[in-house]
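re: ur question from the group chat, yeah i did fold both. here u go
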Amino acid sequence: MRQYAGNRVGLAIVGGLLLVLGGYAWLRGHDQFFGLSPTAKVLPGRAHRSLAEDPWPLWFLALGMLILALVALRWLLLCLGWGRRGTQNGTGTAMLFVGLKGVDGLGKAGVRVAEDGLRLGLTCPAAADMGSVVGKLDQDIVGRIRREVRDDETPAVVRLHVRR
């Protein structure tokens, strides 16, 4: 959960900075910035003249900023959990942890209940015996979670991630 909090803090800082810079630019563009003469220059005279002659670099800058804003919005939505299928199931997650209690270094595990079935996610260290983990999942654990959460005929997708 810590990585999501870090993402949110980073997005909040970048978003706040962009908001302040956008507000400054808007106020300067409408000559409403407090305590500053409307004729004051933001750019040096040479840069101002070159941009006045050929405004295309500003359009490319605006396009780049728009793309950056859309990427940041997508990042925020993914961090908030939007786009994930199903809802978390605490009972299934607890059963998954109990069934795999012999695996050392089990990082993250979760069970989601979606419309099309169950989704189990599991993160293991590279030193774990993957054969025994997959055997436990296949023979015992997934069946128990199915029966507890829904029924025996519910399809299940297991995603096993091995950490280095």
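okk and heres the other one u asked abt
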Amino acid sequence: MNIWMFDFIWGWLVVPPILYCLYRCKRVAREHYFPHLSFFGTVGKWRNIEWLIKVLVVTLMAGALAAPIVIDFSDPRNRNGIDIVLSLDGSGSMNASGFGTEENRQSRFEIVQKIAIDFVTKRVEDNVGVVVFGDFAFIATPVTYEKEIIAEMIGYLNHGMAGQNTAIGEGIAMGVRALKDSKARSKVIILLTDGEHNSGAVSPKEAVSMVQKANIKLYTIGIGKKGEFDSALLSRLARDGGGKFFAATNQSELEAVYNAIDSMEKSSIKSAEHSRVNPYYQWPLAGALGILVWLTWRRKVAL
């Protein structure tokens, strides 16, 4: 939503006295005698138009002095939303194919990348960050509203960047760290994996305790065939984290999972100090200067 405002209201206060002066302080014309007055046009009519043009110039200059601005409350930093961290499994098993359609033989990680990018770009009202975990976890992108940068960064990721194993506890703990400075009332971690916890210095139990203390909601997604991921662990983590567990055996099911999470409840992000302010004083100023140049040129031609 855009709202028009004026930075200096007193700029309009100069209009009444100047208009009064234009009306009362008229130029005194010297008397000239010429017998053929028909050679001249209707001076009185032009004088009236010229006076109106001068009024317009004064009004435009006063408008420029009042410094009109537009405050853009549709700035992503001021929209209703939540802070979300996508914690993605980047272990060696994510290189396996056969998760998509018969025609699409991309790896699991490539398919997850595509769906995650689509999810991020649709969350226009939210701040999003990305964590990748394997033997360890790292923050690929901090929590931000710059969706284009996040989507581009997800495209640069590769499986195996964080090692070949699956440290689920590390993936959750790093998500909590990414949300450490979040001011949003609602914070969410969406963890996706295709394996079992088998690495890392942080246990899943310790990680979910960190989630609870930070008042973060945890969603977990297991992808792949039944038995490939620890559904009991992921279900317990989601339950203790106040979220929900999802399972997806193929690409379409994973898309449905992200669509379901996309309908999560939203809350307000407190960042009003970052409102986008666009000045518009230059337009009335340019109009006034343009009219003055035209009046000066016309007067010189008339002479």
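fwiw on the second one: Residues 2-73+275-302 form one domain. The first helix runs from residue 15 to 24. idk if thats what u expected
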